[in-house]
Amino acid sequence: MTPTGSKYHTHKCGRGNFYQTTLSNALARGLTPCKKCFGSSGGYSQTRKSSTTTTKKTTKKKNTRPKISPLSISSTKIVLVKGQSRKLTVKGGAGIVSWGSSNTAVAGVSAGKVVAKGKGKATITVKKGTQKKSCQVTVETPELNKTAVEMDVEDTVSLDLKGCSHDVQWTSSDDDICEVEDGILIPYSSGTVTVKAKVHGMVWKCKVVITDSTEDDWNDDLDDDSENADDGYMDDEVDAAA
Q1: Are residue 32 and residue 83 in the same domain, yes or no?
Q2: Do 135 and 158 have their domain in common?
Q3: Where is the BIG2 domain (predicted)?
Q4: What is the pLDDT of residues 30-85, one digit of tens each?
Q5: What are 32's strand-pairing partners?
Q6: What pTM does this model have?
Q7: Considering the domain boundaries, does residue 76 fall inside one?
Q8: Which of 57, 175, 194, 199 is exposed most, by the fewest CB atoms within 10 A?
Q9: Residue 50 belongs to a domain
Q10: Neighbouring residues of 54: CB distance < 8 A, sequence distance ≥ 6
Q11: What is the CATH number of the domain that holds 151?
């Protein structure tokens, strides 16, 4: 503005001695805005607009990353018989699933399927993303103590599936000839049967041949009685003829 002017300006506008002042001082002196500086809209309203501070409301972004659940495995300890397999499954976690075995000679694994290969212990490990779980595997190699038995009907013979901690299911091909209870053979008559020991689908067999010595003794007694009867009959005939 100038000391004697009637307008206030944004910069030196025309001739005169301009000096800086505040808008409130210019308005207090009754000065009006210069149309060259402020245009037809007027300086006061424009100045008010320019002096108004606009505060934008900031919205905090929510974390849209999905929550990853903990990884879990269906079994952490299993006992298998050589040749047996077991399927392991996992839940939770995120990412690509990979399986591995600490001893492939004992137990191998592919896509969660564990196959028992040899006696011993192995650790099956599954990884999914940054998480991992493991399962301890024990492999047994049971053996039947007898694969063939010859016995008399009055004998007692026991079968045993050695090296097996599982429950064994015993069966006989003919219970009328010979039954089996907890591996103990119970013969009833002469004949041949096959006794099986079964564990989780694996089967061990024993051929059992049974003879009955009491039948031979009985037949001998019958033969003796028959001979004696024949002799007596002849004697009667002789006596009758006499």
Answers
A1: no
A2: no
A3: 67-138
A4: 777 777 777 665 554 444 444 445 566 666 666 667 788 999 999 999 999 999 99
A5: 7
A6: 0.56
A7: yes
A8: 57
A9: no
A10: none
A11: 2.60.40.1080
Residues 207 and 155 in one domain: yes
Whether residues 135 and 89 share a domain: the answer is: yes
Residue 216 lies in a domain: no
183 in a domain, yes or no? Answer: yes
- C-alpha angle with apex 167: 180 to 179, nearest 5 degrees? 5
How does pLDDT run across 216-234, given as a tens digit for each residue? 655 555 555 555 555 544 3
165 pLDDT higher than 90:
no
Number of other residues whose CB lies within 10 A of the CB of residue 48: 11
Domain count, the chain: 3
Amino acid (1-letter code) at residue 45:
S
Expressed as residue numbers, the domain containing 195 is 143-211
**Cβ-based burial of 227 (10 A; exposed 0-12, middle 13-18, buried ≥19):** exposed
Q: What are phi and psi of 20, to 5 degrees?
A: -80, 150
